[in-house]
Design brief:
Blueprint (H helix, E strand, L loop, with lengths): L1 H43 L30 E9 L11 E10 L16
Antiparallel strand pairs: 1-2
Length: 120
Amino acid sequence: MRRIALALCLLAAACRQPEVHHDAAMRAALADMRYAIATYHQQTGRYPHALSELVPRYLRAIPDDPVTGKKTTWRFETEETVAPSADFTKSETAATRSVIIDVRSGATGTDAAGKRWSDY
């Protein structure tokens, strides 16, 4: 009976281990990208338009989302810059361009503690 209980505990711990690994990997990937975005902003005076602008100077490479395993599932918090006309009289829409000010996971589901991946 004790052996069965011990085996079940070990099995439960082994099954939970990948989730804990994903939690740590997610925090590390996001911390690296957020640091790169902040450093880029500090050094250039603007935010990047795409994560690719951070490679290779600020990031070695765009990391894979640890949960989805893809580089393409990152979600961005963006801000748009508007260039108004010089005299503000033109009725045309001013040109806008989005910049990335923060990054989040696009993975669905939750971590081991029940926190949504998109809330990281």
